[in-house]
Amino acid sequence: MLFVDVGPRNAEAFAEKALEGTWVVCHHMNGCIHCMMMRPTWEAAKAAVKGVDGLQVADIEYGQMGMLPKTMTNIAGFPSIVVYKKGKPVKELGARSLDSMIALLKGAAPKARARSAPVVRARPASAPAGKAAAKKNAHKGK
Asked: Which of 129, 85, 92, 102 is nearest to 41 (CA)?
C-alpha cells in the first residue's frame, strides 16, 4: 500500500501522480468537527488494509486542493473519501463506518491477476499410454 499525506511540499508532485492509476483520497479540512470525528475510523481502515498490494491512498487537506486537477476538487463537503481513476471520480464513500471504509479501500486495490491452472489433457479411455502400449500395438499390424 502506498500512502501519501499531501502537504505544501508534495502537493504538486501528487497532482501529477494522481492522474496515474487508481487513488483513494480523503479530502478533509483542519478544524472541521466532522473530519476530526471521522479521523480515528479512517486511520483504523487504513491500518486494516496496510498489506494490500497496489493500493494507493492519499489524505489531502483543503488548503492543498488548489494544486489538484479540477476533476479532483469538486466535492460535496468535508470529509469526503473518493476513489479516482486517472484523476476522475468513480466512487464516493457513503456510510462512514469502518466496514464501509475497508470495503471501499479493498475495492479500489488492483485485482491480482489470476494464474491459470496448468492444462491437463485427459487421455481417452481407449487410448493406450507410453512405450509399452506402442510395443503392444506394433504386433497388431502384422
From this structure: 102
Q: Tell me the HSE value of 32 on the side-chain side, using a 13 A CA sphere.
A: 15
Q: Helix (H, G, I), strand (E, B), or coil: what is residue 134? A: helix
Complete domains list, the chain, with CATH:
2-108 (3.40.30.10)
pLDDT digits (tens, 9 = 90+) for 82-120: 999 999 999 999 888 999 999 999 999 987 543 444 544
Euclidean distance between CA atoms 80 and 91, whole angstroms: 11
DSSP tag of 65:
G
**CB contact burial 26-44 (16+ within 10 A = b; e otherwise):** bbbeeebeebeebeebbee
